[in-house]
């Protein structure tokens, strides 16, 4: 079978690999159909991922078809599926509390172990979800959208909450879409005029252009001086995260959707004065995946607008290297592995 492997930072190769063979007990062999290219994949290619061993087959936003199953499963051979790429232990303190998304020893396809930029992939049957009426391309967007759906669920924001999403990349846009589905009043902020234009024109969101400065003044004006009830940071930028504390209303919530290596500092008196909540949001659960599937089926998520770039497995080394630096018009890029279109 063919794979795309990141041999070292800046070096991708399209190469043949030995067949995976039959799955072990409790696992399934999947014929990969589509793989979304994530910011994590670009970071791996650029050598910016802190905990990655090279070489690595990337890819964790996956749809495919079941080729073989070993043992009982809720899906069957020939069925089209979405893959939950988070491999949890099932026994740690988080897993016992129904939070496998933050398992103590979590493994993620394409990061901690080889992923789906490959014609086939071995997956635990518990990590397979039926597509249920989605196209294979739509199914490959479910994982990244589930990140935003999980963040919104974590926010505990009620209908009518004024929400600010900072960062108009794929994760931020997904968060904004699911905040809107939750009936929050959403504004998106970014420094990219192009991405803000996409959010405003294609997705009909209110926006704040942070590149022009006076951000706090804009927040004050937009919220009549009170701040936002919920602030989601999806920037992966420590300075942005630290600044965002000032945008939260008294009694409000800040959800850290992105993660950075830096320490985050904030004013403790301001934090306590507002009785803020600070919430981390990591990955997603099967419940979030199901929510995304239902939302796409209901026509609430315009996948056709979000998937802006496409490539094949063979061409992806060239295109990933290009898109890592040339992001004009890029929201979500998709690899067609199976040739299904």
Structure explained in plain terms:
This protein is α/β, with parallel strands linked by helices and 341 residues long. The chain has two domains: 2-141 and 301-336, Quinone Oxidoreductase, Chain A, domain 1, CATH 3.90.180; 148-280, NAD(P)-binding Rossmann-like Domain (Rossmann fold, 3-Layer(aba) Sandwich), CATH 3.40.50. It has helices spanning 39-46, 93-96, 136-139, 142-155, 170-181, 193-201, 215-222, 238-244, 268-273, 286-297, 303-306, 316-323; strands at residues 2-8, 11-16, 27-37, 61-69, 80-83, 86-87, 107-108, 120-124, 128-130, 162-166, 185-190, 206-209, 228-233, 248-256, 277-280, 307-312, 332-336. The strands form four sheets. Strands 3, 4, 5, 8, 9, 16 and 17 form a seven-stranded mixed sheet that branches. The chain has a six-stranded parallel sheet with strand order 12-11-10-13-14-15, with helices on both faces. Helix 4 (142-155) crosses helix 5 and helix 4 crosses helix 10 (286-297). The model has no long low-confidence stretch (mean pLDDT 95).
């Amino acid at each position: 079978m063919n794979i795309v492997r990141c041999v070292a930072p800046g070096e991708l190769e399209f190469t043949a690999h030995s067949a995976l063979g039959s799955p072990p007990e409790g696992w399934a062999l999947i014929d990969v159909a589509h793989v979304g290219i994530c910011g994590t994949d670009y970071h791996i290619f650029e050598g910016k991922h802190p905990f990655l061993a090279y070489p690595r087959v990337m890819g964790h936003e996956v749809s495919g078809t079941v080729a073989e199953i070993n043992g009982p499963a809720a899906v069957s051979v020939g069925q089209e599926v979405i893959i939950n790429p988070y491999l949890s232990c099932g026994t740690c303190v988080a897993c016992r509390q129904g939070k496998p998304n933050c398992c103590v020893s979590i493994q993620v396809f394409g990061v901690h172990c080889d992923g789906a930029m490959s014609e086939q992939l071995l997956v635990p049957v518990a990590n397979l979800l039926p597509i249920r009426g989605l196209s294979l391309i739509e199914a490959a967007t479910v994982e990244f959208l589930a990140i935003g759906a999980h963040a919104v669920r974590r926010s505990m924001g009620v209908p009518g909450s004024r929400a600010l999403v900072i960062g108009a990349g794929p994760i931020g846009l997904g968060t904004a879409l699911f905040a809107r589905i939750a009936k929050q009043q959403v504004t998106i902020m970014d420094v990219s005029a192009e991405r803000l234009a996409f959010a405003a024109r294609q997705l009909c969101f209110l926006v704040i252009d942070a590149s022009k400065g006076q951000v706090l003044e804009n927040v004050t004006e937009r919220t009549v001086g009170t701040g936002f009830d919920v602030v989601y940071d999806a920037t992966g930028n420590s300075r942005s995260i630290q600044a965002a504390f000032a945008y939260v209303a008294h009694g409000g919530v800040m959800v850290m959707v992105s993660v950075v290596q830096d320490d985050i500092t904030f004013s403790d008196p301001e934090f306590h004065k507002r009785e803020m909540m600070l919430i981390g949001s990591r990955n997603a659960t099967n419940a979030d995946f199901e929510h995304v599937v239902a939302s796409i089926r209901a026509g609430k998520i315009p996948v056709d607008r979000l998937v802006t770039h496409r490539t094949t497995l063979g061409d992806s080394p060239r295109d990933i290297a290009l898109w890592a630096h040339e992001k004009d018009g890029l929201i979500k890029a998709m690899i067609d592995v199976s040739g299904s279109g």
